[in-house]
Write a structure and sequence with these properties.
Elements lengths: L10 E7 L4 E8 L1 H7 L6 H18 L8 E10 L2 E9 L2 E8 L11 H5 E11 L4 E8 L5 H13 L3 E10 L3 E11 L22 H10 L4 H5 L5 H9 L5 E4 L4 E2 L5 H8 L4 H7 L6 E5 L4 E5 L2
Parallel strand pairs: 5-11
Antiparallel strand pairs: 1-2, 1-10, 2-9, 3-4, 3-6, 4-5, 6-7, 8-9, 12-13
Length: 300
């Protein structure tokens, strides 16, 4: 039944395997990803890095309840050619950009330390309904961005997590990115029993988590980025011996929210004296949007 599903492009689906006490997300970015990358002339290795970051952000954002705010992933560093990477997610909309040294040379296979040097990773959740803001900050460690996010959940949330990321294509043919996130719940979904997930490095992993890790870790880049492979089919390949519950998530889309009317409303909140200092000789205020790489000239 699952093998007959139509191919998908931009998708986000949530899933759970109750008997193994795990939950997760599958995200694929196609049109949304190319719309974001088209605004920037990044070298190919940086385009792939930002594609991975956008996918991770979409994976994390998809875990939020509908209209439950915004999640931001930010890496700040020193000592490497990249000093800042920012992505955020709100209701399916993703956007992102990075700052890098113009004279730097980037090659395939560069690790996170090669790209960033030393730095930290911050994940910020702004909850609309509760008007609350939560931020977790951890060192930017690991060879890949996926490893860094896994470390964040292990150290900040004590939540065992596996992240698999894949990017294929190029600026000419178009980019495709995909991601799989799997997490071991602190409490069993069936019965609500506390699970023993806080184990030392010398102790064996929980059997359920060990089983899921062995399966999920086989996911390949080709599977994550194959537009002819529906996410449901991927999950069936991984967990066909288990009962998997699936829920459709918000459709991923390019999410730059800047527009002249919104920017003007923000500028009008400043005192006139401050706006006067912002104006150029033409009487307009220039606002540079890093996300969409555009400069807006606003009469305000």
């Amino acid at each position: 039944m699952l093998e007959g599903l139509a191919p998908s492009a931009d998708r986000a689906i949530g899933f759970s395997v109750a008997v193994r006490n795990v939950r997760g997300q599958v995200v694929r970015l196609d049109t949304a990803l190319n719309a974001v990358l088209a605004a920037h002339a990044y070298p190919a290795p940086l385009a792939r890095l930002l594609a991975e970051a956008l996918t991770v952000t979409a994976l994390l954002g998809a875990t939020l309840r509908k209209d439950d705010g915004q999640i931001t992933v930010q890496a700040q560093a020193r000592g490497g050619p990249i000093d800042l990477l920012v992505c955020d997610y709100r209701g399916g909309a993703v956007r992102g950009y990075l700052n890098f040294a113009a004279d730097a040379v980037f090659t395939d296979g560069m690790t996170l330390p090669d790209l960033f040097g030393e730095g930290h990773l911050a994940i910020t959740l702004d909850q609309t309904a509760a008007s609350e803001r939560y931020q977790g900050i951890v060192p930017l460690e690991g060879d890949t961005l996926g490893h860094a996010i896994e470390g964040y959940f292990a150290n900040s949330e004590q939540l065992p997590t596996l992240i698999k990321l894949g990017v294929s294509g190029d600026a000419t043919t178009g980019w495709v990115a995909g991601g799989l996130l799997v997490q071991h719940l602190a409490r069993a979904e069936i019965g609500g029993v506390r699970l023993d997930v806080e184990r030392s490095e010398t102790e064996a992993l929980h059997p359920d988590w060990q089983h899921v890790l062995a399966l999920a870790d086989t996911t390949s880049v080709a599977e994550l980025t194959d537009l002819d492979l529906a996410p449901e089919t991927l999950l069936w390949r991984l967990f066909h011996e288990e009962e998997v519950r699936i829920s459709e998530g918000a459709l991923p889309n390019r999410g730059c929210r800047c527009n002249p009317a919104h920017i003007r409303s923000v500028l009008e909140s400043f005192p006139e004296a401050e706006r006067a200092d912002m104006r150029g000789d033409d009487g307009l205020i220039s606002v540079d949007c890093k996300f969409c790489s555009r400069i807006f000239a606003i009469p305000a």
